[in-house]
Amino acid sequence: MVPPLTTTATWLPDREPSRVDRFLWIPIGFMFVIQFIEPSSGWLVPWLAVGAVLSALATGPIAKTPFGQRISSWFEAIGAGGRFVLIAGFAVGIVVAFITTPSLVDPGHSVGTGMLLWHLVLVPVWIVHLNRTE
Question: Which residues of 78-109 are buried (b: 16+ CB within 10 A; e: fewer)?
Answer without folding.
Answer: eeeeeeeeeeeeeeeeeeeeeeeeeeeeebbb
